[in-house]
Design goal:
The complex is a heterodimer of chains A (about 775) and B (about 160). Chain A contains 19 helices and 34 strands. Helices cover about 30% and strands about 25% of the residues of chain A. A 7-stranded mixed sheet of chain A has the order 3-6-1-15-12-13-14, with helices on both faces. A 5-stranded mixed sheet of chain A has the order 10-18-17-16-11, sandwiched between helices. Chain A has 3 domains: about 5-35 and about 490-625, Aldehyde Oxidoreductase, domain 4 (2-Layer Sandwich), CATH 3.30.365; about 40-145 and about 215-300, Aldehyde Oxidoreductase, domain 3 (Alpha-Beta Complex); about 425-480 and about 635-775, Aldehyde oxidase/xanthine dehydrogenase, molybdopterin binding domain (Aldehyde Oxidoreductase, domain 4, 2-Layer Sandwich), CATH 3.30.365. With about 160 residues, chain B is an alpha+beta fold. Chain B has 2 domains: about 1-75, Roll (Ubiquitin-like (UB roll)); about 85-150, [2Fe-2S]-binding domain (DNA polymerase, domain 1), CATH 1.10.150.120. The longest helix of chain B is centred in the C-terminal third of the chain and has 15 residues, at about 140-150. Classes of the chains: A alpha+beta (about 775), B alpha+beta (about 160). At the A-B interface, helix 2 and helix 17 of A face helix 2, helix 3, helix 4 and helix 5 of B.
Chain lengths: ~775, ~160
């Protein structure tokens, strides 16, 4: 039943907790140091697993001699490519079996990147495990390696995979391109006929690393019936369960992935890492629990943001209307499927959703290389396309003599337009947008209109730049040609006989406050006090399936799951109270834990009383379980403005100030939403200047926090964050996502500011001082 | 080697290998897992503890080097069931997100406020520059630390 907008808004207005800053349930554990992460846990009889990794980017493993390692007392299991199953499996959490790629084995007789697992041991002590690894002798036959997308496209490039499986069928590869996609909409001829000018340019972005402070860690413990209990730093307990099940051939109901919070993920932990099934297999072989915790250096090989090269073509009419938009993109992948299908598809979907041109075309493909794999990373291909598009938009506006702000406002997507978030299979009608407000308000706050042009003072040049970005809220589009997607959740709401409530869900809270959203939604829906609602992540044995925390779906999809379960629990509660109060349940409501009659307010009883009576009389339990497949993936928007100061002598840049406005629908946790904006800015600044994964002969040359620079406290500029007042009708309490849109336009805004300051377009990220100096010289 | 430490007010005598780092002694032998191992190279600050009043990366200290010292970890900060003002301020200011860096940041700032009880925001930013928060919530931490420094001055 759809509620009218007025009723929905009233529901938001009368909410006691949604929209307010209140203490978070998880903070207490975290400030005490008592929040347990995987590596903090203690297990009886624990073995320590260690992986032997390839020193070569591409080689055949001819022989593995483990005889010396096996002699060490305390070594309980050693696995090599020659004593493990050889079937291929997926590492992908949103894996649709009949569409996607399988190219990974537990251990393979061919290694394809520096760091590729060759063998593994489990021993009683971590030092012993390391010693055992050092005693394994491997004979390699080195093969020519492909160390970039460009190299992999050469006619004579060696094949990295001669065959893979696609949709369960063997596919022989003749080149290093496992997946490509072309999408086109509208009439090209007509669009270009209406264009008075056509602009073309090429942009490229660097490899990055997610770098959560918690390194990946897993413990797998065998059960007597051949199953596994698993504790893992993962963004999806059910995704991991599925991938482990495929890799280890253990049925899903015998793998229980436990409820552990993670120390940051940012997309890195949204796949099964290569060492995770290895830990599981070692545990099955040794018959004891096995833990593998990454070193910081190893963790760098688990994922990151992939480099993309993008050729853009945009046709514009005289009055500044965008008529045609085209992108040809080359995405660099690592040595194995690293969300290849999703990455190629999403890049195009994000691109199509930037401006409402009547002709749009996207062509993208991904190449295998002999480099470590990439992963999802906050924004998932969106920041890359955003940098290309928003850079060119600035150039076009300046060339046409238009205010870049007005040029954008004229062409941005509007209510009723389609949004192609998460690729072309996820299409949603835009029902709420505060984007124009964000652009105009942000411009006002940064002072765009007075200071559009750079100001020189001595060796310094100051300039302002801006960009806007979007992201989907989840992946549940409504209008789609191919509906197959892994997008569902379910929550359990259990009302107790003292009036308190337990909520359980399979969605991990990365720390952004997702579980606080659930607590507030539950308390406001059910009519109980927030302090009476306890929120827990479940384990896969005990909670309904959930896809995992990605795609800005946490609050949007999980919140819907909690709201639906709370609504049902409330109905059960009112039915019970109706009998006790002898009032029709339609006349009853609940507030602050009291059930009362709206008609005869003196007739009331506590939630506790109703639950206890339900139990003692009919044995009726006030518990509800929801099953949710969202019917939309509405876009959330962020407009970002940056004021920078470029030093003409050193080529360095200081970001003096940022303004970032977000349209997230209803702001449920105000401070935590601002924190998401700060986090997005920190990631965006990294992408702008600080961060780049560098390779040397295929090896990551800066696999540590000393050489891979992430934003630290003094790097952060002053950030003025604000929100649009919108209501998303498909979202619980009108909310949309935020985690990724907050990152997507940041580097673009900074690059636009720097380009404006130096008077030349910066087309490559990161912006290095030498590039800026050379731009200044020209 | 036999080492004597006072950890969170309790005297401990431990027999540890000469090459064992303090972080591992705390985590593995004393089950004090609040200090985290984010990098093991002293670059992330997640393992910060206070030794004789100074904040240090416990991954860079050999346990034998700490012989005879007083070590304070995040677990020893709350007294008699009452949170340390910094712990309370971190909750109140929403400075806690994924939480992994939090013990390190709180220990760094505890030691810093002992040294400089009324820092400016810029000084606080520099003081916690050795602690990486990949969630990017630095502003909220600075607000929390600043609030405590003001409280202690009775402002």
């Amino acid at each position: 039943m759809m509620m009218s907008t007025e009723l929905l808004l009233q529901k938001r207005r009368t909410a006691r907790y949604v929209g307010k800053d209140l203490p978070r349930q998880d903070s207490l554990y975290k400030v005490l140091g008592s929040q347990e992460y995987v590596d903090d846990m203690k297990f009886d009889g624990l073995l320590y697993g260690k992986v032997l990794r390839s020193p070569l980017p591409h080689a055949d493993v001819v022989n593995v001699d483990v005889s010396d390692a096996a002699k060490l007392p305390g070594v309980k299991a050693i696995i090599t490519p020659f004593n493990v199953p050889t079937h291929r499996f997926t590492r992908h959490f949103t894996y649709v079996p009949w569409k996607e790629i399988r190219d990974r084995r537990l251990l393979d007789t061919r290694v394809r990147f520096v760091g590729d697992p060759v063998a593994a041991v489990a021993a009683t002590d971590p030092h012993l495990a390391e010693e055992a690894i050092s005693k394994i002798r491997v004979d390699y036959r080195e093969l020519p390696a492909v160390l970039s997308a460009d190299e992999s496209l050469r006619r004579d490039a060696p094949l990295i995979h001669e065959e893979i499986e696609v949709g369960g069928q063997i596919k022989k590869l003749e080149n290093n391109i496992p997946y490509s996609e072309v999408n086109e909409e509208g009439n090209s001829e007509q669009a270009y006929a209406e264009s008075t000018k056509v602009y073309e340019d090429t942009f490229s972005t660097q490899a990055l690393f997610n770098a959560p402070v918690e390194k990946r860690s897993i413990v797998a413990s065998p059960t007597p019936d051949g199953g596994l209990e698993v504790w893992c730093s993962t963004q999806s307990i059910h995704g991991l369960r599925y991938c482990l099940s495929q890799a280890l051939k253990v049925p899903l109901n015998k793998i229980n992935v436990h409820d552990v919070l993670i120390g940051g993920g940012f997309g890195l932990k949204y796949n099964m890492a290569m060492h995770e099934p290895i830990a599981g297999y070692l545990a099955l072989v040794a018959g004891r629990p096995v833990k593998i915790t990454m070193t910081r250096e190893e963790d760098f090989t688990n994922g990151g943001r992939r480099p993309v090269k993008m050729d853009l073509k945009v046709g514009v009419s005289k009055d500044g209307t965008i008529k045609a938009m085209e992108m040809d993109a080359v995405l660099q992948s690592g040595a194995y499927d690293d969300h290849i299908v999703g990455a190629v598809s999403c890049l195009g979907g994000w691109f199509f959703s930037m401006y409402r041109a009547k002709y749009r075309r996207y062509s993208g493909f991904s190449t295998y290389t002999n480099l470590p794999v990439y992963s999802a990373m906050r924004g998932f291909l969106n920041p890359q396309q955003n940098f290309a598009v928003e850079s060119l938009m600035d150039d076009i506006a300046e060339d046409l003599g238009l205010d870049p702000l007005e040029f954008r406002v004229k062409n941005i997507p509007r209510e009723g337009d389609f949004f192609y978030g998460q690729g072309f299979t996820v299409v949603t009608k835009i029902r709420s947008t505060g984007l124009e407000y964000l652009l105009r308000e942000g411009a006002k706050r940064i002072g765009w209109h007075d200071r559009r042009h750079p100001i020189r003072s001595g060796s310094k040049i100051r300039a302002i730049g801006f960009a806007w970005g979007h992201h989907s809220s989840g992946t549940g589009g409504e209008m789609t040609k191919t509906p197959d997607r892994i997008e569902s959740t379910g929550a359990i709401v259990k009302v107790n006989e003292d009036g308190t409530v337990n909520v359980v869900i399979g969605m991990v809270d990365h720390g952004g406050g997702t579980h606080e959203v659930y607590r507030k939604i539950c308390a406001d829906t059910l009519g109980v006090k927030l302090e009476d609602v306890r929120m827990r992540l479940g384990s896969t044995d005990f909670v309904p399936f959930d896809t995992g925390t990605h795609a800005c779906r946490g609050s949007f999809v999980g919140g819907t799951g909690v709201m639906k379960a709370a609504q049902e629990a409330k109905e059960l509660l009112l039915d019970e109270a109706s009998q006790l109060l002898e009032e029709p349940s339609s006349d009853l409501d609940v507030r602050d834990g009291r059930i009362y009659s709206k008609v005869n307010p003196q007739k009331a009883l506590s939630v506790a009383e109703a639950v206890m009576r339900a139990k003692t009389r009919g044995g009726g339990l006030i518990v509800a379980l929801s099953r949710v497949r969202p019917g939309a993936a509405p876009p959330n928007f962020v407009a970002c403005f940056a004021e920078v100061e470029v030093d003409r002598e050193t080529g360095t840049v200081e970001v003096k100030r940022m303004v970032a406005g977000a349209d997230v629908g209803t702001v449920v946790n105000p401070k935590d939403c601002v924190a998401q904006i700060h986090g997005g800015v920190a990631f965006g600044l990294g992408m702008s200047f600080l961060e780049e994964t560098c390779y040397q002969g295929g090896r990551i040359a800066n696999a540590g926090y000393l050489d891979y620079m992430v934003a630290r406290a003094p790097d952060m500029p002053q950030v003025d964050a604000f929100f649009a007042d919108t209501y998303e009708p498909t979202g619980p309490f009108g909310l949309k996502g935020i985690g990724e849109s907050s990152t997507n336009p940041v580097a673009s805004a900074v690059a636009n500011a720097v380009s404006r300051a130096v008077g030349k377009r910066m087309k490559v990220l990161p912006l290095k001082p030498e590039m800026i100096l050379s731009a200044l010289e020209k | 080697m036999l080492v004597h430490l006072k950890v969170n007010g309790v005297d401990r005598s431990l027999d540890v290998p000469a090459n064992e780092i303090l972080l591992h002694t705390l985590r593995e032998r004393l089950s004090l897992t609040g200090a985290k191992e984010g990098c093991s190279t002293g670059d992330c600050g997640a393992c910060t503890v206070i030794i004789d009043g100074k904040a240090v990366n416990s991954c860079l200290v050999l346990t034998v080097e700490a012989d005879g010292s007083e070590v304070l970890t995040i677990e020893g900060l709350a007294k008699d069931g009452k949170l340390h003002p910094l712990q309370q301020a971190f909750i109140d200011e929403h400075a806690v997100q994924c939480g992994y860096c939090i013990p390190g940041v709180i220990m760094t700032s505890t030691a810093y406020l002992m040294e400089n009880p009324s820092p400016t925001k810029e000084e606080i930013e520099r003081a916690i520059a050795g602690n990486i928060c990949r969630c990017g919530g630095y502003k909220f931490m600075v607000d929390a630390i600043s609030k405590v420094s003001k409280l202690s001055k009775g402002q």
